[in-house]
Structure formats: structure tokens, C-alpha cells
């Protein structure tokens, strides 16, 4: 393995990237909406249009743009509780994840999580996946004012790692997350857990599209980042 001499970072979105769990979030949102007499939240629309956004922003998007912050937080808590109860036995690492993280760490690449989840869900998922030890920074929606598609989560992660945004690669499954990376000046690896391969064709900052981490080489990915810069010169 040829080690990079400059400092680079990989920033991992959590839900839908470290684990294939976004459909479980979608099912919990559908149940929450139904409990409030609102039949018909389309889980596919949630996944395509709002995956990765803060819970209160999902409620503003589908339910009521003027919902109070207090009510939005309360409903998000209810949905997240339901999600945790229903998902505990189903949260598994994506294939090849641990090996990829180990190899990236050994190559000297700084590693962080940048998630739209709040503190409790972040702790829950990273704990079940046994991945906390790999990350030098973990940034969630509770650490920033604006969630995805704003760039704040990824910029904060880069700042904590001390790496320039242009030298960070974000791993994302959600379109609002890929937009957040683009607004942060970062390239992406897109995962096909939540959206189809085709839906990423419009995203100019996507370097690679992958189904899981099995075939991915961390140093090869940095080379791909360099190639993409040369292509755009
Ligand atoms: O940014 P990530 O890790 O994909 O976060 C996904 C988040 O997506 C949001 O839409 C959900 O409401 C959250 O509950 C979920 O955690």
C-alpha cells in the first residue's frame, strides 16, 4: 500500500451508508404520520426527497412548514423511539465496512461521521455496529444549526479533523446529503442502499457509485479524487 503524504479525510454519512437502515426510518415516519390521522406518506418520496434531513425538517417538509420547534422535536423523538424499537435486531454493518475502515485508518486517512441523526440515534447505531473506535470526529444534527442539504455537518467534521474540504471524500446514500457535500466543496462516493444508481447521474461531485464496501480500495479512491481534479482543469 502506497501511503498518501498529504492529509485526507473520509467523512461517512451514517444511516444508509454504514448500515442499510433508511427503509426502517421511512416505515417509522409512515407510522407516526398515520397515528396523527395522516394516511399516505409515501415512503419512497421520504427516501428520495428528504432522507438525511433533520427530523424536524422532515416534518416541516411533509406535515406543516410552520410547526413549532417544540412540537417538531417532540414528534421526532416519538418517531425515533419507534424506529429504535423496531430496528434493534436489524442494524448490521454494510458488507466490507470494517475492513475498509481498518485499511483507510492504516493508510493514514482521517475518518469521521457526518450524520443528520441526533445524539441518541447516532450513539445507538455506532454502538450496535461497533465502529466508534474508527472515527476521530462524530458530528450529528445536534452539533449544527442547519442540517443537510446545508453543508454545515460536513464542514464541521472537516474542521475537527483539520483537513481542507477539497481533500475530504463524503460517503452518502441520500440526495440531500450529496447536495450538502457539494455545497461544502467535497466529492462523494454514492451508495445504492436508498436511491437507484441512475438517480446519481445528475450529481457532478460523485466519484464512484457502490453497492457496499467490498471492492473499494481507500488509496485507489484518493487517486480517483486526483484524476477528477485533473479532468476538471
Ligand atoms: O444523515 P444520515 O445519517 O443519513 O441520517 C438520516 C436521518 O434522516 C432523517 O430524515 C431521519 O429523520 C433521521 O431520523 C435519520 O437519522
Computed over alpha carbons, the radius of gyration is 17 Å
Could you say which structural class the secondary elements and strand pairing correspond to? alpha/beta
Overall 3D shape: globular
How many strands, what sense, and barrel or not for the largest sheet? 6 strands, parallel
Helical residues, percent: 40-55%
Provide the number of structural domains: 2
Query: Order of strands in the sheet with the most strands?
Result: 3-2-1-4-5-6
The distinct bound ligands, ions and cofactors come out as: 6-O-phosphono-beta-D-glucopyranose
Strand content: 5-15%
Kindly provide the name of the CATH class of the largest domain: Alpha Beta
- The pLDDT mean sits at 94
CATH topology of the largest domain: the name is Rossmann fold
**What is the number of strand segments?**
6
Name the CATH superfamily assignment of the largest domain: HAD superfamily/HAD-like
Keywords: Carbohydrate metabolism, Isomerase, Magnesium, Metal-binding, Phosphoprotein
Cofactor: Mg(2+)
EC number: 5.4.2.6
Pfam families: HAD_2
List the helices and strands and how they pair.
Blueprint: E1 9-12, H1 22-35, H2 43-50, H3 55-62, H4 69-87, H5 97-106, E2 110-114, H6 119-129, E3 137-139, H7 152-161, E4 168-172, H8 175-183, E5 187-191, E6 206-210, H9 218-232
Parallel strand pairs: 1-2, 1-4, 2-3, 4-5, 5-6
The protein binds 6-O-phosphono-beta-D-glucopyranose.
Residues 13-16, 25, 50-53, 55, 58, 80, 115-117, 121, 174, 177 line the site of 6-O-phosphono-beta-D-glucopyranose (BG6).
GO molecular function, one term: metal ion binding
Catalytic activity: beta-D-glucose 1-phosphate = beta-D-glucose 6-phosphate
Cofactor: Mg(2+)
Amino acid at each position: 500500500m502506497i501511503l498518501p503524504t498529504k492529509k485526507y479525510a473520509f467523512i461517512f454519512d451514517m444511516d444508509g451508508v454504514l448500515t442499510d437502515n433508511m427503509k426502517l426510518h421511512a416505515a417509522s415516519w409512515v407510522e407516526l404520520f398515520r397515528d396523527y390521522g395522516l394516511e399516505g406518506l409515501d415512503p419512497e418520496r421520504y427516501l428520495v426527497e428528504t432522507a438525511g434531513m433533520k427530523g424536524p425538517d422532515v416534518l416541516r417538509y411533509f406535515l406543516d412548514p410552520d410547526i413549532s420547534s417544540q412540537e417538531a422535536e417532540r414528534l421526532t423523538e416519538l418517531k425515533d423511539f419507534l424506529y429504535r424499537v423496531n430496528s434493534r435486531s436489524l442494524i448490521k454493518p454494510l458488507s466490507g465496512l470494517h475492513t475498509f475502515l481498518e485499511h483507510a485508518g492504516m493508510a493514514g486517512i482521517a475518518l469521521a461521521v457526518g450524520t443528520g441523526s441526533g445524539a441518541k440515534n447516532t450513539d445507538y447505531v455506532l454502538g450496535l455496529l461497533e465502529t466508534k473506535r474508527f472515527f476521530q470526529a462524530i458530528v450529528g444534527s445536534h452539533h449544527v444549526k442547519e442540517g443537510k442539504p446545508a453543508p454545515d455537518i460536513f464542514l464541521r467534521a472537516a474542521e475537527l479533523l483539520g483537513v481542507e474540504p477539497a481533500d475530504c471524500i463524503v460517503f452518502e446514500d441520500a440526495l440531500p446529503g450529496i447536495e450538502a457535500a457539494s455545497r461544502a466543496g467535497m466529492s462523494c462516493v454514492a451508495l445504492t442502499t436508498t436511491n437507484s444508481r441512475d438517480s446519481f447521474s445528475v450529481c457532478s461531485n460523485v466519484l464512484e457509485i457502490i453497492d457496499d464496501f467490498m471492492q473499494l480500495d481507500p488509496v485507489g479512491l484518493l487517486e480517483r479524487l486526483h484524476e477528477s481534479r485533473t479532468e476538471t482543469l
